[in-house]
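Batch queue: ligand-bound targets. Current item pairs a single chain with adenosine-5'-triphosphate. No template structures supplied; prediction is de novo from sequence plus SMILES. Inputs echoed for audit trail.
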Amino acid sequence: MADVRDREISVEQEHLDQVYRRLEEKIHEAEFLMTDAAKRSQVGTPGALAERDAQVFRAGVHLNRLNSEFEDFLFGRIDLLLGKDGKKGPDGAYTSVEPAEDAVSENNTAQIAETLHIGRIGVLDADYSPLVIDWRAPAAAPFYRSTPVDPGRVVRRRVIRSKGRKVLGVEDDLMRPELTATLNGESLPVIGDGALMAALGQARSHTMRDIVASIQAEQDMVIRAPAASVTYVEGGPGTGKTAVALHRAAYLLYQDRRRYAGGILIVSPTPLLVAYTEGVLPSLGEEGQVAIRAVGALADDASGAVEATVYDSPAVARVKGSSRMLHVLRKAARGALEGTAGGAGAAAKAPAQGGQLSFGDFGDLGEEDDDEGPQIPAEPPTRLRVVAFGRRLELEADALGRIRRNALSGTAPVNLLRPRARKLLLDALWSQSGSAGRHSDPELAAELRSSFDEDITSEDDFIRFLDAWWPELTPRSVLSAMGDERRLGRWARRVLNPGEVRKVARSLKRDALSVHDVALIDELQSILGTPPKPRKKKDLDPLDLLTGLDELMPQREESQRERAERLAAERTEYAHVIVDEAQDLTPMQWRMVGRRGRHATWTIVGDPAQSSWSDPDEAAAARDEALGSRPRRRFTLTVNYRNPAEIADLAAKVLALAMPGSESPSAVRSTGVKPRFAVVRDKDLGASVREEAARLLDQVDGTVGVVVAMNRREQAAKWLDGLGGRVVALGSLEAKGLEYDATVVVTPAEIADESPAGLRVLYVALTRATQQLTVLSGERDDPDGDGVPDLLRE
Ligand SMILES: Nc1ncnc2c1ncn2[C@@H]1O[C@H](COP(=O)(O)OP(=O)(O)OP(=O)(O)O)[C@@H](O)[C@H]1O
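Prediction returned. Tokens below.
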């Protein structure tokens, strides 16, 4: 058998060598293109320069891709029966997926009619025959879709393992075991026992790997689903939702690059999950067109990207995430113009007091953000005094209040109402001036009025008054104003209860933004509107005016790359939006994400049983509003590829409490290693966690994750100090989407008690391990004699 294996490896090695020879030729071509293009820089016309930039850019991209794709470039092969039609697709492969009627003879023998190699990108030989088919091409679909139940044309499916230019091994699955198939007159050998298990058993690192070599049929259906409207995917922990979402982004780009030039946005729940997943797309040959952003880093305001650095306590998050906030924000955006009356500007700046914050507050995620937006003046002026046409004119508080209310009526964005307010002020002053009746001739009257307006609006007093009385509001200044409990109480009357008002106001006094504040900032941005920026007058050089030099000097053309980067930075809407862990989005976050995909098609992946949001019905309503009436195509993923059965069975007990009646995905493998339980006294907790983490580090080659309740995060990081980079401490909410070779879940009861969704958060924590799980119980867990906590018993 070893002989056969070696022979098959050398067969694949030969093919790989051929592929590399061809790739080298292509690289030379690309290099030639680059030098050729560089020569053109001698020709100085703007057109030639732009053409050169474009060519260098394209050749550079090509070269980069070929170089980076050298690792593990070719990973699959299928051996196929004769197909039904004789047509070839654009990739040179035959198109039919069904065997021809006479492909199999009566005594169940057949000949292999076509062999295809599958890789990260397609490579054609000089004669245009396919050396490697891109994994996303239609011809590669049978590699993923074929099963022994529904094999199509595939007889043997092979995964090729290679490193650099060397083939290390092959793993075969036989799709038609009943056939005696021959290839070039010899019988078809079958090596190994399947690629999936080999992939699943590998040690995990802190970054996710792509799964191109082992995508399963039910996953492939989602990845290649047509992009029309909404593709909706549900599946339990470890069913590959995140992996599928990422591969789908790469597939969509491949399949219709022009359409997705509008960008694909992937919304991820935490910065940790962004960091974990962002290497997958480059490994699939896709960069640039896809933005992966954490939901707390999705918004931008005038000062640039807004990024959350803090988690709110569950009680505060629940209020800030609720669609009730929409009403409060609308009132606040109008009310904020009325100044602070109690000095909210100052209050918003006040440093957060430790005592206040410690109640239910999870604390910082990272560095504080001190980039505060402009503040609303503490007291807006209550009187306007100006002189026009030699007369002193004055508007008192009552009149100013009436004018403000009048200007604010209607729903237009507040910042766009400033010109209207200015006009109303001038109207009031005009009528006070008594000049209205001076001319009966309408033209003269209009002229008089316009010189009256000019008189006033050029006065410094008036300009200062307007800036103070109707300042340009920024989302941050309104949010700061909401930090004043009395004012927030007024804006939230009958919508939030006094307890909620107190908690939200207190949380907004902090300098740093929370994850849930970001959705409020984004909402405020659309409520306030961005006033058109006064166009900066270009400082004209008098010489230019004299000679007209400006016209003659050629402008430096923006290069393609610069243009692509600029467009990406300016992009506010996307052609396709993928939401990962969609069950966690709050209604306010759905509104924020929805604004980025108003004309997009969508892929939404999630698992209701892992939701850390307290009111799934409210979130579902907001999601439906964001998606509008677009039709949905639903998929369910049913197999858990992450957890061995021993861990999945334990997690299923919590699932039964968290979401009675819902089904666990079936674990695809079992390791025979049962989860471990230990009971720890509170005072020994740190030492025990450390000891257990160190033990697990010895047992596994990859990573160890220690999951604790959110308010123990910093403490837990200290417990693990010095154990090295393979182990990390995580708050329960941060564990979302991540995975480790082994995990320690610390005091399940603390995690479950943290929030109304605590049991679902615990379910997430228990489903992060690919090999081993230890549960450490405290007294609160009410453990039995074996150390099994109350929540994890039958
Ligand atoms: N077809 C596959 N071949 C190899 N590995 C796979 C396959 N499908 C999933 N996996 C692996 O299983 C693990 C879980 O995948 P993923 O994180 O995408 O699941 P998920 O459904 O998003 O999980 P969760 O809901 O718990 O976040 C990952 O390590 C992924 O690489």
